[in-house]
């Protein structure tokens, strides 16, 4: 079963407008974390924002904010005042605990990504 | 501070050949992972390590081996390359479990083509 679902293969937004990228997740863990990464055409993975499952307030980092709705299991990324440089692939990821050799480890499960194109 | 480095950047292999993708980090991170990225599939975890001498399988481990003899290095070995292993491979490291938002730092990736 898909644990992270990003239902928008592609999104378009006008420069300076806001855009929301959707992410829903599935877990039975009480403690988990949600991450958003940006992957520009150059290929590197860039961390954007994090939301912990126990965080009461939505995370914000500059123009990025995370609309966290725990009961609906959604963690949408909102980019305000879009810029041309925001054009990229965006991945939602969830941290779940796993065990290796008796040591807990938070491994990431990624969604399929959303390609965002910002038009001038 | 170089962060996470990966070599080579590009590689072409013939079916049946073996090779090792190198990954090194200079941040003294305990946790390291290997992912592969395929079109439309996002990133999928291959193997991970929580410290020197400790590794475990991820979501898609078949056809790959790892070992972790030092904190800095986490090589990924392809035992007998197959066209299905054509992909972009990312190595990542982090200093924590991620429970406090510690992010994984990714290397630049290795593009592998298996003919």
Helix-residue proportion of chain B = under 10%
Give the overall form of chain A: globular
Q: Mean pLDDT of chain A, nearest integer?
A: 90
The secondary structure category of chain B is: mainly beta
The proportion of residues forming helix of chain A, as a percent range, comes to under 10%
Q: State the secondary-structure class of chain A.
A: mainly beta
The arrangement of helices and strands of chain B along the chain is EEEEEEEEEEE
Mean pLDDT of chain B: 91
Strand content of chain B: over 45%
User: Oligomeric status of the shown chains?
Assistant: heterodimer
Report on the biggest sheet of chain B: 7 strands, mixed
Strand content of chain A: over 45%
Low-confidence stretches of chain A: none
User: How many individual helices of chain B?
Assistant: 0
Biggest beta-sheet profile of chain A: 6 strands, mixed
Gyration radius from CA atoms of chain B, angstroms: 13 Å
First-residue to last-residue Cα separation of chain B: 36 Å
Fold blueprint:
The complex is a heterodimer of chains A (120) and B (115).
Chain A: E1 4-5, E2 10-14, E3 19-21, E4 24-25, E5 33-39, E6 46-52, E7 60-61, E8 64-69, E9 74-79, E10 88-100, E11 103-110, E12 114-119
Parallel strand pairs in A: 2-12
Antiparallel strand pairs in A: 1-4, 3-9, 5-6, 5-10, 7-8, 8-9, 10-11, 10-12
Chain B: E1 4-7, E2 10-13, E3 19-25, E4 31-38, E5 42-51, E6 54-57, E7 64-66, E8 76-78, E9 87-94, E10 105-106, E11 110-114
Parallel strand pairs in B: 2-11
Antiparallel strand pairs in B: 1-3, 3-8, 4-5, 4-9, 5-6, 7-8, 9-10, 9-11
């Amino acid at each position: 079963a898909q644990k992270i679902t990003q239902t928008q293969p592609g999104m378009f937004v006008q420069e300076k407008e806001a855009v929301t990228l959707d992410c829903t997740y599935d877990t039975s863990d009480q403690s988990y974390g949600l991450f958003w990464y940006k992957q520009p055409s150059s290929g590197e993975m860039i961390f954007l924002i994090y939301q912990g499952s126990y965080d009461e307030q939505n995370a914000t980092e500059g123009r990025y904010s995370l609309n966290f709705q725990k009961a609906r299991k959604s963690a949408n990324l909102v980019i305000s005042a879009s810029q041309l440089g925001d054009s990229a692939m965006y991945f939602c990821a969830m941290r779940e605990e796993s065990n290796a050799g008796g040591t807990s480890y938070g491994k990431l499960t990624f969604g399929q990504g959303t390609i965002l194109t910002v038009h001038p | 501070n170089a962060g996470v480095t990966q070599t080579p950047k590009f590689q072409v292999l013939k079916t049946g050949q073996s090779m090792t993708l190198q990954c090194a980090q200079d941040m003294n991170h305990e946790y390291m992972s290997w992912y592969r990225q395929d079109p439309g599939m996002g990133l999928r975890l291959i193997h991970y390590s929580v410290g020197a001498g400790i590794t475990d399988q991820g979501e898609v481990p078949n056809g790959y081996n790892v070992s972790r003899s030092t904190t800095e290095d986490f090589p990924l070995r392809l035992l007998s390359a197959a066209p299905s292993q054509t992909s972009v491979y990312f190595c990542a490291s982090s200093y924590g479990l991620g429970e406090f938002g510690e992010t994984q730092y990714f290397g630049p990736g290795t593009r592998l083509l298996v003919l």
